[in-house]
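Please check this one:

***
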Amino acid sequence: MGRAFEYRRASKEKRWDKMSKTFPKLSRAITMAAKEGGGDPDLNPKLRLAIQNAKAENMPKDNIESAIKRAEGADAADIKEVSYEGKGPHGVMIWVETATDNTNRTVANIKTILNKGGGQLLNGGSLEFLFDRKAVVEFEVTEELDMEDLELNLIDGGLEELTVNEGTGYAHADFADFGKLTSTFEEMGVEMKKASLQRIPNNPQEFTDEQLDEIEALIDKLEDDEDVQAVYTNAA
């Protein structure tokens, strides 16, 4: 009985810990999208997708509405999207995307985490050639979904690659075709689980399991920072 209680409590604490880190990041994405294109998701595709991504993480409706309203406040004007490039242990290259209202704080935190993790901060633009920016849409593959018809329509929307893994489909396109790709899903009535712009390594490097453990530990530390939205590496 005692062990079962401890397990349930540990499981709850793990979920709460994840939410405490994930929800603020999702809120910032929603606020920035609303600030950029207005607070009506029907008229703002970027906001509509940010809300969908938040719902996919079970973010409560009240949190989403608060994040949209925050875009009207004076503090929302200070939130900026800033990327940082770095080198991690064993020569892995790292790209960090942030949303911050204080770049001095953010760059200091990123630099400290990289240094403690056996890495270093690099000059902006150093890693641009190592990553391709891609639009990536995740969706559920159901028995009713005609994948051939979907693929044909997505090609017109800029589709470069379509893969399926354990019931989840992944559509890749050039980042410039993000709007066309997501609009095609909406027009076909296929619900997107998540839609984002990602940086994909164009020449992935192999690392040993031991090296990957160190690299992943550093990535975890970076992702724990409240300003960090996404972390990408050139690890295979």
About this structure: Helices lie at 2-37, 45-56, 61-70, 103-116, 147-156, 178-188, 209-224. The longest helix spans residues 2-37. The beta strands are 80-87, 93-100, 120-122, 131-140, 159-165, 168-174, 192-201, 228-233.
